[in-house]
User: What shape does this take?
Amino acid sequence: PNQSGWQVYSGETELGPELKTLFFDQAPAGHMLEYFNGRIYVADGQYVFPSKPYAYELFDLEDYMPFDGPISLLGAVEDGLFIADGKRTYFVKDPKVRVPVLPYGAITGTMTKIDLRLFGDGGMEGTGLMWISRKGIVLGTRGGSVRNLSESVYVFEAGSFGAGLFRQSNGHNQYVALLQGSVGESDAAYRWHKITSSNLELPFEATGELTN
Assistant: This one.
């Protein structure tokens, strides 16, 4: 005959330890990634996904930071991440807290990391980021501090994407950027000389190719 009822079992179990990776997934297919504070951050479209702490292969795909447009900048300094979308640039110390630091974004691909001892009078330490925005060249440092280095000096046509690097050449510390898709000039290479001086030295070269 059919029987119904319930029973509570409080004895030993043979199920083994808890599966700590249950419901986690591999990293999403993104277009940018960065390491900060024990996590890998992956930008996929307009979302940024953090890995589990010190488990870089494990992601909770329901745990993400949404932004207002495709991510164009994702870079870490000692105490946080700079993240830019099509409208703003943010500083993120914690995956749940983002602070807007600029009312405009960044040009994709132009970010590079620099040793701050080589910048200005050498009084800063740590890692800084340089990138190009539609308002000029930006320096980002710890605490979410940002400086637009060229907006008050020179206005140039910004591209839709590009590449940036820092190098030392002929006694100069240089930030070099190549932009594509700019209005009126499809390919332009920009060299800003002597970023170790108190101000960014201009004029700069804007040509179709880099020259020595």
User: Anything to note?
Assistant: The two ends are 93 Å apart (CA to CA). The first strand starts at residue 32 and ends at 36.
